[in-house]
Design a protein that fits this description.
By secondary structure, the chain is of the alpha+beta class. It has helices at 4-7, 14-64, 70-76, 78-83, 109-119, 160-199, 212-258, 262-287, 299-312, 332-349, 380-383, 405-415; strands spanning 87-90, 123-127, 133-140, 143-150, 295-297, 317-323, 328-330, 353-359, 363-370, 419-424, 431-438. The strands form three sheets. Strands 6-8-9-11-10 form a five-stranded mixed β-sheet. Strands 1-4-3-2 form a four-stranded antiparallel β-sheet, with helices on one face. A two-stranded antiparallel sheet has the order 5-7. One of its GO terms (molecular function) is ATP binding.
Length: 439
């Protein structure tokens, strides 16, 4: 429970997590090295160099102490200034020290200023405008003395270069590592895409690759997909044979019953018709999506055709709303069978049906609502199971159903990687059935 909050901020994709694993340690190492470098190396070196420069400035001040005029003071210190590579001058009485802005990345300047103020109590101001020059303003009995010398005598030159170099090579190594890692992750994403497509009823080309473990998982997926396809094919072939074998004796029974008197043959013909209906429903359920392959369709146009066909057949059905637009990859024949089953159930148990379509960038939803008795909440799970008859909820005497209508719809939705959701219609008061599949 203590790590639940962390999951909210963690990336979801494999590439993002791999990048985080690569980048986070590099950033931590850079921070540790930078802090250690600044505190232990730069600060100590800068303090030593500052103390040396302060002693040289003190020497110049001591040489000038005995002079009575500014010119005498500068003349007395001329040889020392030349030896120390310094320049000196006195500011006019009304001139203020010129303090320019420092560079934003000059993070050593505050330490230099603090050290010099401690070592040189007479110092009024210090100017560190760039990385090449330092100007000290000292208060003397002759006026304000300006001393100028090389900045490299106070601190290392360009101390930020080490950090810039570290960041550059860290970024370079991280980029190379990520490119290599991407090649290792690509087989995993290809396997995920193939598995997701197969879960939605599509078969995309896939060949195992990558590391030994990823290749083993890929080979297992290919074998599993092949077994499932063989099972579906064998089931379809078996059911085709069963259909042929059973329809022939049923036809002979109908011919034989046609020779009997109508009153005697009527009950038997009803039994034969019920057997025919049961056989057709069972074959529709077993056939599933074997009759069609995935195609890219326009759901709005395709659903309008289904509604038009149902209206021509005398069914009271209407397309009430369409949200979103675009195309979707579905098995048209299978989805058409699912929608027709929902419309048929709605008309069988109610007086009218309303169909709506909603599309988002990731999902497609087809909703069918009716004004019938609906299905109680506690029975909705059982309603999608094969050969389930819910007599208390839906009057089976109103139709010839055998309990496979919703089961066929649920099976088709699952083949597309989706789901069939049952609820209550707020508009009509009956059943609300949603087919939700991914795009």
């Amino acid at each position: 429970m203590t790590t639940q909050w962390l999951k909210l901020y963690m990336p979801r994709s494999l590439y993002a997590r791999a990048a985080l694993i690569l980048v986070l340690p590099v950033i931590v190492v850079l921070l540790v090295v930078a802090i250690a470098f600044l505190q232990r190396h730069l600060e100590e070196v800068t303090a030593q160099m500052t103390r040396t420069a302060a002693r040289e400035v003190t020497l110049v001040q001591n040489v000038m102490e005995g002079a009575e005029t500014q010119q005498q003071a500068l003349a007395a210190a001329r040889s020392d200034l030349a030896a120390l590579n310094m320049t000196a001058k006195f500011l006019p009485l009304n001139q203020e020290p010129q303090i320019d802005k420092r560079r934003w990345y000059d993070f050593i300047a505050p330490q230099v200023e603090a050290e010099m103020r401690v070592l040189l109590p007479q110092m009024q101001e210090i100017a560190l405008p760039n990385g090449h020059e330092v100007r000290l303003y000292l208060g003397t009995n002759l006026g304000t003395l300006e001393l100028s010398f090389d900045r490299r005598r106070l601190s290392p030159t360009a101390p930020h270069q080490l950090i810039v170099t570290m960041v550059f090579f860290a970024a370079l190594i991280t980029t190379i590592s990520f490119l290599y890692m991407r090649n290792q992750l690509r087989p995993i994403t290809r396997l995920a895409d193939a598995a997701q497509a197969f879960g939605r009823g599509r078969v995309v080309p896939y060949s195992p690759g990558g590391a030994i473990e990823v290749r083993a998982a890929g080979n297992a997926f290919v074998d599993m997909r092949a077994r499932i396809e063989r099972q579906i094919e064998q089931r379809t072939l078996m059911l085709s044979g069963v259909s042929h074998d059973l329809r022939t004796p049923l036809t002979r029974l109908k011919l034989g019953l046609a020779l009997l008197p109508e009153e005697e043959a009527a009950p038997l013909l009803q039994d034969v018709d019920e057997m025919q209906s049961l056989l057709d429903a069972f074959l529709d359920f077993s056939r599933g999506t074997a009759e069609s392959s995935p195609e890219e369709v326009e759901p709005e146009y395709w659903l309008s055709q289904i509604i038009d066909d149902a209206q021509r057949a005398g069914q009271n059905v209407e397309l009430v709303s369409v949200e979103g637009q675009g195309t979707a990859m579905v098995r048209p024949t299978a989805i058409r069978r699912a929608v027709e089953n929902l419309i048929g159930n709605a008309i069988r148990y109610g007086s009218r049906a309303e169909v709506s379509l909603s599309m988002t960038p990731k999902s497609l939803r087809i909703r069918v609502e009716d004004d019938g008795p609906g299905i109680p909440v506690e029975l909705r799970t059982e309603a999608v199971k094969p050969f389930t008859r819910l007599d208390p909820a839906r009057n089976q005497n109103q139709g010839s159903g055998v309990g496979l209508g919703l089961a066929i719809v649920a099976d088709i939705a699952r083949v597309h990687g989706g789901i069939l959701r049952l609820g209550s219609s707020e508009r009509l008061g009956g059943l609300c059935a949603d087919i939700v599949i991914g795009r």
